[in-house]
Amino acid sequence: MFASSSTSENSNLSINSIGKLPEESSVLVVGAGGIGCELLKSLALCRFGSIGVIDLDTIEVSNLNRQFLFRREHVGQPKASVACDSIRRICPSIHIEPFHGDVLTDPRFDMSFYKQYDLVINALDNVQARQHVNRMCLLCSKPLIDSGSTGYNGQATLIFKGRTQCYDCIEKPKQQRTYAVCTIRNTPSQPIHCIVWAKFLYNQLFGDNEDPNNEDVTPDSDDPENANNELENKTNGHHRVSTRDWIHKEMEEFDPKRIFNKLFFDDIIYLTSMKNLWEKRRQPIPIEYGKACLVKEKNQNGQGDHDESTMPKITDQRIQSISDYVQMFIDSVNDLKQRSDKQREIALTTKEPTFLVWDKNDDADLRFVTASANLRAHIFGINLTSKFDVKSMAGNIIPAVATTNAIVAGITVLQARKILATLPRLSHDHTLTSINHLTNVFISTDRKTGGIIQSIPLEEPNQSCIQCSDLEQPVRVRINMSLFTVSALYERVIRNHLKMNKPDVIIADGSGRILISADDDEDEQMMLKTLDQFKLMNGTILLCEEDYADDTNAALTQNMKIKLMLEHTDTIKDIDDYIIVDGHVIGEIKQSLKRKLPDVDNDDDDDDDNIQHLDDYQNEINIVKKTKRLSTTPNEHNTNTNNNSGAIHMLR
Amino acid sequence: MSKSSIPCTKQIQYDRQLRLWGDHGQRALESGRVCLIGANALGTEILKSLVLPGLGSFTIIDHQLVTIDDCGSNFFVHPSMIDQSRARVTCELLTQLNPDVHGIYIDKPSIDDLLQQNTFDFSQFNVVITANLSINTLNILARHLWILKIPLLVARTYGFIGTIRLQVFEHYVIEVHSDDTIPDLRLDRPLITFVNYCNSIDFKSLTREEHLHLPSIIILFKTLQLWQEQYNSKNLPQTRLEKDEFRKILDQLLHHSAYDTHDKEKLLENFEEAKRTIPSRLVKTHLPSTIKDLFQDRSCLELSHQTNLFWFVIHAIKLFTENEGQGLLPVRGEVPDMITNTISYIKILKIYQEQATKDCEIVNKYFFDLLQKYNRLPDECIIACDLVETYCKNAAFLRVLRTTAINSENYLIDETESNRSWYTCLHLCDLFYEKFRRYPGEFLSDETQFETDLIDLKQINRKLDSGKDLTSDSKQKFLEELCRYGASELHSIAALIGGCCAQEAIKLITHQYVPIDNTLVYNGIEQSINVFKL
């Protein structure tokens, strides 16, 4: 029972000392936010030998109610470095190193980076980054503590590769709920639908036009519910101009009133023409600019105070009248147009983007979404939402308070110490029982009695988890993501090296996006795009999956899955160059493929040489050298990358 | 990207927590006054979690000087501050966390002298917090605060064990923030204005459009009227059979002459919602037992010049319930979201709000009559004016928490829960301290002293158990473990208990959420917390 309480800064507590002492260990903390600040303080005072801190963000005013390593004068500075400075001031002897960068995309954070540490602690606020660190820790066999908090609730869960559930073993409820496109564009019924629409609208008007996720906001006549209305669609074809195209024309003379009428009158009239949609719904009522200015009506939502005389609330929490929202819309559109023009100017001379990015903490951005969402809500007879609530709904704002973070961090650091005490045993005992004195901890501080902390026993991994069940090593390919194209990936890596014919290539980042589909013909435009345009990043795993029909028995199909891990490097300058980091994995894959499909493999001698070649190189330096040689000698380059005499002939 | 001007720094700084306790909670916190005794790691962690969210002011009482040990566990001291006043340096660093918070310190005289002199005014505080205070001092302080009726939070960390004990004479919880609130719609005891409005709607003459947007609550009430007529009943459908009949009637109302056959096969959204919400809308309206208990409380029945205003409001609500309310509480005046158009929704909302305002005015009148009758000061009445509305809205959830006094704790009760044993065993360490002026295992001169300390500790245990010597094996182990800790302060345990204790202080200051009743023990060995009553 007391074995775990072994190591400590106090001599009284280290009598039964076993395992690794905090002083000798190094910890990576990902995130220097609410929990991150608390963690760093506790880790430092518990005398952890070495600490690394990754954070992408800069300090904001709304951080100051809990992120105590920061002061008002630090607003705008990187969290990671300010946090480290604050810690050093109190504990001058500590070795603590800041990394200001995105854990998802920064090439510094590759496998060798993670391998420097004994333990990784997540103090993140989003699912995507958590999933990424989870994956990296699985690959590097590093123990991970995932900590988090929402309001009065929090958790600290332990993840050990192959022994416990990993972060992805249980499907997470989607953090950002997605809504059907038709609901957003045609038939909103809740305030959130209008808010999502307003955020889309912002991107259409001021956002990144190149972004494929930038959704159109005009009525969608492809609505399945509108199936019988085809004739009408054709007659109204001219309405199907997207807002973006329309705005491009309009931007020249830029008239906010005209934008207003297009969005809240013309588009709505068009929507009402899709009669099928309104059979059992209330039809939206278009409103023209002139008339809207006169609507003093306040349409209120269900919660909170309603009588103004007894409403001591801040203006932001109040519902305003439609005419107020019209004014707010016009003002914010003007403000943003000005800013957008300025941004484009700045972009000419700097590396800054040419477009605006919506930010919940920016007043004009928030006013625009509040006004647009409420005007649309009015048209559709939906309850209005105050600016305060819009901010929380549109910005995915998670309530946060210092007390919960302090508790979560306190527990997490204690968990960290227990893991370190267990580390030596972990290396030769791979069962769950070696760590079953550890638990997952969940907290909720608003509870009346008991249950403030709940310890839940660790659970075995989910056998079908895509991230951790298949512990086969991925094939690691080192490329320059901003040069390497999808086409090169497909032709050179997947077809040539993995010997796959036409697999589904799925991006295994939890999004379920498919990069290349086995069923569809490739879009040439798409194939010529570089990988970074798909927001693929360092460490992204691609799951290549293909079914092979068995020639002798049509009913038998073999399923083949290969994991491909992309590693980014700036040192490769040639667009076609790539490095297979660990060639022996390919050898293994080939062996297993041979076992699966004994017939298809015979005349592969020269290609075998090729792979064997890579196999011989034990360390990466040699391989890099080889690439350098390859890139300067075109002949050899060709023999390596254009060798299409496939080792295993795939059946077409 | 350029940023437009910031509307209100404070609003932004506290944005994330306003979403938990609201503006009024924040206002209460900003006028809150806290006294901390003991600026050790635990004490400063507690204050940190109160200063960051914007507490009004704090006073640190601590006469000790910073030692090298402090630097190892306390984030708010620094090796360069050794031998300086611990109260002063921690006060300075803590106020730096948030310029809005006012902090003062008292490093002379010591807390013991302050209590002995009995000149220091503890009644200025909303809550007094102690961090690892020795038992003798705590007992005197606890007695003193019990008489003053000032809440006391006793926080403690001891190796891997942490405890919090709340002593409060009487604490009022105004907003419980319960997850499972059923809307106060009273379809079984409908408001007259609501009945009139429903009766003004004739199903048969509704246009198709109106029928499509009929709010589900009206659909339910219309159905109920028809059902009651059919069954010659005044109640809600209760048996399964009755509920089935109710649904049948609802289905009949669904049809409208303007719909074609195609329409009839589809379910309408508002009718769908009506069906779905039957369990939460068709509920019997009654007087909750929690408020019934408050009505029967002696403080409510025997108002006096000294009684807290809380009881005056409760008494006023009681009078309302007995008279105008016809056995029910004032209407809450909230209507849940429903699928309908704006105009219909506002119409219904207004009906409930108007009734809520009317009810509240009546309570207010009772309240002022009571204040006059008991000669309460007029300025109190002004403060109280806002209160009545909040109380009426939360009437169904109002609660009073009264804990036992610390001085009446009985350690002899033998415990079944292991975490409770820890609390008892810590008390033994306190008794050890009383005797030897140090904790068992603390300041060890050599290995053998650990053994003698343990023997002494067991001796004290036997004495307390009135010589029974039936100490269980687990208790032996606990004592050994505590001896091993030697009263050491672990930072991560201090951070955790600090967070928990600050949370309890915020509950006490804001009168939101229910505080612990009355002792919490955290066990870092097993990562578990138990809350129990002493």
Largest interface: A-B, 96 and 101 residues
Strand order of the largest sheet of chain B: 3-2-1-4-5-6-9-10
Instruction: Name the CATH homologous superfamily of the largest domain in chain B.
Output: NAD(P)-binding Rossmann-like Domain
Largest sheet of chain B: 8 strands, mixed
- Major sheet of chain A: order of its strands? 3-2-1-4-5-6-7-8
CATH architectural label of the largest domain in chain A: 3-Layer(aba) Sandwich
| First-to-last CA distance of chain B | 58 Å
Structural class of chain A: alpha/beta
Give the biggest sheet of chain A.
8 strands, mixed
CATH-level-4 superfamily name of the largest domain in chain A: NAD(P)-binding Rossmann-like Domain
The chain-level mean pLDDT of chain B equals: 87
- What best-fitting shape of chain B do the alpha-carbon axes yield? elongated
CATH class of the largest domain in chain A: Alpha Beta
Query: Could you say how many structural domains of chain A there are in total?
Result: 3
Helix content estimate of chain B: 40-55%
- Could you name the ranges of chain A where pLDDT drops below 50 across 5 or more consecutive residues? 1-17, 230-238, 299-312, 599-652
Strand content of chain A: 5-15%
The helix tally of chain A amounts to: 20
Judging from the principal axes of the Cα atoms, what is the shape of chain A? Answer: globular
Keywords, separated by commas or semicolons:
heterodimer, A: 652 residues, alpha/beta, Rossmann fold, Arc Repressor Mutant, subunit A, 20 helices, 14 strands, disordered N terminus, B: 534 residues, 4 domains, eight-stranded mixed sheet, 23 helices
